[in-house]
Design brief:
By secondary structure, this protein is α/β, with parallel strands linked by helices. It has a single domain, classed as Alpha-Beta Complex (2-enoyl-CoA Hydratase, Chain A, domain 1). The protein contains eleven helices and ten strands. It is globular. Bound molecules: (2S)-sulfonatepropionyl-CoA.
Length: about 260
């Protein structure tokens, strides 16, 4: 489902499950995590996370067929997407997300959790919890809040509409928008710049920034309130309808309960 390659001190992971539009299934996520572990063991100094050249869909997000029902939190600690986000954030070297094609749902957060984002002008990003009646989780929303102004995070999350890379670049959410013909050379030139610098300093600054970005106080009461509110959503008719509609390839009919 993926390919991996190390050249010099730069590791590349290519999402390669076109049949399911690189949906972040548990199996695909486990392959990405294993590749990251190998890169860390071999002291890769910069990683690139990409899809196959010229894809229309970079990743279709969480594997909807794996979203649990029956009252289980769809984005709980052990969820594959949550595991992937933590592994990206804890990887000891910078990860550049190189984006061609459309990015959906949990794959949006995956890209935002990388350290740099380089995209083609045609690339688009759609945050989709509201399209599936999924109650996104606290640390996941913080990923959006750390990357985008709250009004933009809300627009992405509430409209669930794709936003083009150029607009996100103008808001500083994407580092560079580069034509498809140049994106590989541009991305690897950036990776080489990083790889020739001091890896210990970069690794520790990445970890410091991770800790600082996540440094938010929340009272136990507030956390319990949030979890209770989220439970109402993933126990709702609308959550089941969202999953059913996807499987039946039709638009969902949300009733608000
Ligand atoms: O029918 P087959 O078996 O060929 O499979 C189809 C799709 O069912 C499958 N597929 C997926 N399977 C599981 N999870 C997915 N997210 C997913 N997306 C696609 O891949 C096969 C080809 O899909 P198809 O025919 O629709 O391809 P297309 O080229 O016409 O359209 C590509 C997309 C990406 C526009 C379309 O597949 C699509 O809209 N996919 C769903 C995008 C989405 O809403 N993702 C969010 C997933 S939920 C999530 O990430 C979080 C929980 S949240 O929502 O909270 O952010």
């Amino acid at each position: 489902m993926i390919t991996q390659l190390i050249e010099g001190a730069i590791g590349t992971i290519t999402l390669n499950h076109e049949a399911k539009r690189n949906a972040l299934s548990e199996a695909l996520v486990n392959e990405v995590i294993a590749a990251l572990a190998e890169f860390a063991r071999l002291e890769v100094r910069c990683a690139v996370l990409r899809a196959a050249p010229g894809v229309k869909v970079w990743s279709a997000g969480h594997d909807v067929s794996e979203l649990p029902e029956g009252g289980q939190d769809p984005l709980g600690w052990r969820d594959p997407l949550r595991h992937l986000i933590r592994e990206l954030e804890n990887f000891p070297a910078p990860i550049i997300a190189m984006i061609e094609g459309s990015v959906w749902g949990g794959a949006c957060e995956t890209v935002l959790a990388c350290d740099l984002i380089i995209a083609t002008p045609e690339a688009s990003f759609a945050a989709t919890p509201a399209k599936h009646s999924v109650p996104y989780n606290v640390s996941g929303l913080l990923t959006f809040l750390n990357a985008a102004h709250i009004h933009i995070a809300k627009e992405m999350l509430f409209t669930a509409q794709p936003i083009l890379a150029g607009r996100l670049e103008r808001m500083g959410i994407i580092n560079h928008v580069t034509p498809a013909d140049d994106i590989e050379e541009f991305t690897y030139a950036t990776a080489r710049m990083i790889a020739q610098n001091a890896p210990l300093s970069i690794s520790v600054m990445k970890e410091q920034l991770r800790i600082l970005a996540g440094a938010h106080t929340m009272s136990p009461q507030d956390f319990e309130r949030i979890q209770g509110l989220r439970r109402v959503v993933y126990n709702s008719h609308d959550y089941s309808e969202g999953i059913r509609a996807f499987k039946e390839k039709r638009k969902p009919k949300f009733q608000g309960y």
